[in-house]
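The aim of this short unit is practical: by the end, you should be able to scan a pair of folded records and say something sensible about each. We start with the first protein, listed as its amino acid sequence and then its C-alpha cells.
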Amino acid sequence: MESLERMVQDIDRLEQRITELVDRVELLEDENSSLLARQELLVTERAALVRRNEEARSRVEAMIERLKALEEAGQP
C-alpha cells in the first residue's frame, strides 16, 4: 500500500511539474511573439530613419553644390 501511495504522490508531482512547464512554454511563446513584433517595428523604424538620413544628405550635398556655383559665378 505504501508503494501505491508513493506512486500516486510521484504522479501528482510529475503532473504539477508538467503543468508548470506548459505554463512556462506558453509564457515564453507570448514573450517571443512580443519580441518578434517589436523587432519588426524597430527594423521598419530604422529603414525610415536611414531613408530620411539619405534624403537629408542629398539635400545638403545639393546646397553645397549650389553654394559652390554661386561662389564661382561671383568671382572675377
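Turning to the second protein, read its sequence before its C-alpha cells, just as you did above.
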Amino acid sequence: MGTHATKDRVGPPALASASKWRRVIGLAGPALAQQLFLLVIQLYDQFLAGFFTEEHTAALNTANYLYWAVTSYTSIVSVGATAVVARFVGAMDYPMANRAVGQSIILAAACGLAAALAGLLGVAVIVRFLGLHGASAEYAVQYLLPLAGLLPFYLIEVGGIACLIGAGDTRTGLRTLGGVVCLNVPLAWFLSQGSLGFVGIAWGTSISHALGCLFVLAVLFRGRFNLLLTFANLIPDFALLYRLLRVSVPAAIDSLSTTFGQLWFLTIINTLGPIAASAHGIAIRCEGLGYLSGAAFGIAAMSLVGQNLGAKQPGHAARDAWTAFAAGGVIMSLMGVIFYWFAPEMLSAFSPASNREAIVAVGVPALQLVAFAMPAVACTIILSASLRGAGDTRVPMLFTWSGFFGVRIPLAYWLTGAVVDLGPLGTFEGANLGLMGAWWAMFADLYFRAILLVIRFASGRWKYARV
C-alpha cells in the first residue's frame, strides 16, 4: 500500500484515546458541512425555478421527490459499503477493506446503469402516476431526463464517499460536495438563463455530480485513510458482493419504502391543487435545514458503530451512538425554534412572485407544526443510521412500513379531504384540513417510528448483527 494510503490514520477511532464527544463531533462536523452543500444545491435549484412559472415550481417539487427516490436507491450501495468497510477497518484488516471498496464501486456502477435505463424509459409514466398533468408534467419529465442519464456517475460518487466514511473520513465527502456546489452555481445559472431554460438547472446539477464522481475515484486510486482502490480489487468477488448486499438490500428496501410512501403522500397533496403542492414542496425544502445535523450525526454514528463492533467493543459502539443522538437532537430542536419563528420569511424566499402570498399563507402553519417534530426526526435519522452501521437493517424496515402505511397514509386521507372514498367499502366524512391535515399525519408517523427505534436500540440486539 502506498504512503498516501497509510499516512492519514494509524488505527480506527474505536481504539483512539479521544473522548466519545470528540470522536463524534470530529466526524459529524465535516459531514454536517457536506449535508449543507447538498441542501445548497437543492435550494439553489428551487431559487432558479422561482424565475419561471408556478407550473415550473410544481414540476421541480415533483422532480425533487423522484430524485429523492434515487437518493434512497443509493442505499443499496452506500449502507453496505460503510458498514462492511467500517467492520474491516475496526478489525484493522485493511486488505479486505480495500477489497470491499472495489466491490462497492462495481456495485455502484451496475446499480447506476440499471437506474439510468429505468429512468430514461419510465420517467413519463411515473410523473403521470404522481398526479401531475399538463405543462407541469411536461416540465418535470424534461427536467428528470438529464438527471437520469448521468445516474451511474452519481451512484459511484455516493458509493466512494460511503467507503471513506466507513474508514472514518468525512472530509473527502465535504471537499467533493463543496466542489459540486462551486461548479453547480455558475453552470445551472448559465444554462438555465440561456437556450436550455428550465432544463438547464438539471444539466448543471448532473454535470457537477459527474465531475464529483471523477474526483472521488481519483482520491481512492491515490489512497486515503488506509484505503486504496486498485484495478485488481475491481474484479468481481461474489462472496463479498453478497456480504455488501446482505446489509444493503434491507436498507435499500427501507429507504425505497420511505420514498414510495412519500410519493404516495405526494399524490394526496397534489389533489389539493397547485398552491398546496407548491407550499408543501417549499416547506419540505426549508425543513431540510433541520435534517442537516441529523444526517451528519447519523453518518458519524454509522461509521463509529461499525468500527467499534469490528474492534469487538460493543459498549463503545452504544455510547458513541447515544452521544451522536444527543448532540444531533439538541441541534435539530434548536432548528425547530427557527422554523417556528421565521416560517413566513423562509416560505416567502422560495415562493414564485405570482402566488407568493397564497403559498406563504398555506405553508407557514405546516412548517411551524414540524418544528415540534424535530426531536422525533433526530431519532429516526440518527438511530436508524446507528442500526445500519451495525448491519441491523431488517427490523427498521418493518418500522418504516408500520409508520408510513399504518399511520401516515391512512391519516393523510382522513385529515386532508372532505370525503374519504374507500371504493367498494363506501365513503365517510373526512376532517377536510387540507395541507395541514397531511402534515399532522406526518407528525404522528414521525413520533410513532421514533418510539419504536428507541426501544430497538436500547434492547442491544443490534450488537449481534452479522455483516
